[in-house]
Amino acid sequence: MPKYVSLVLGAAATMTATPVSTPDAASDFYPVPVQVGGSYGFIDTTGKLVIQPTFGLAQRFSDGLALVVNDDNGKYGFIDRTGKIIIAPQYDHAGDFIDGLAVAFQGGKNGWIDKTGRLVIQFQQVEPNIIDWGRSARD
Predict the structure, then answer these.
(1) What contacts 24+ positions apart, CB below 8 Å, involve 38-43?
(2) Which of 4, 25, 89, 138 has its CA 20 to 30 A from that of 108?
(3) Which domain holds residue 72?
(4) Residue 2 resides in a domain
(5) What is the rounded average pLDDT for all residues in the chain?
(6) Cβ neighbours of residue 13 under 8 Å, at least 6 residues apart?
(7) Domain count of the chain?
(8) CATH code for the domain of 120
(9) What is the Cα–Cα distance from 61 to 97, expressed in whole angstroms?
(10) What is the pLDDT of residue 103?
C-alpha cells in the first residue's frame, strides 16, 4: 500500500491510500464513449466494446444516462448503460442530466426534461447568456 506524507501546519502525518482499481469503484464512470471509425460506442473497464458504435456523437454518463446523437437525423437523445434508448433522439441539442433534469433545445427554445423524457418545464425562448448547458439554477 503506498504511503504519502502530508504537512499540515508544520506537523508531519502519514496516511495510507487505497487505489481505486476495482470495476465496482469505477462503475459510475463506465462505460465510457469511444470513437470507432466514424461513429461512437462505449467500452467497459477492460476496454471491451459493450455498446456498439452507432452514434454520431456520445457523451459520458451523467445521472445514469448518456447523451447521444443519432447518426441519421443529427438529433440528441439519451441511452442507459446497456445501450437502450431511454429518450429518443428528438432534440436540436441537450445537456447532461443533473439531479434528474436536463436542459433540451428545440426550435430555438429550451425546456427541461426528466429522465423519462417528460417535459417538466415547457419550451420557451431564453437569453443565451443565462443557459449553463445542463446545470440547474440551484447548482
Answers:
(1) 39/71, 40/68, 42/66, 42/83
(2) 138
(3) 30-130
(4) no
(5) 80
(6) 5, 6, 7
(7) 1
(8) 2.40.128
(9) 9
(10) 95
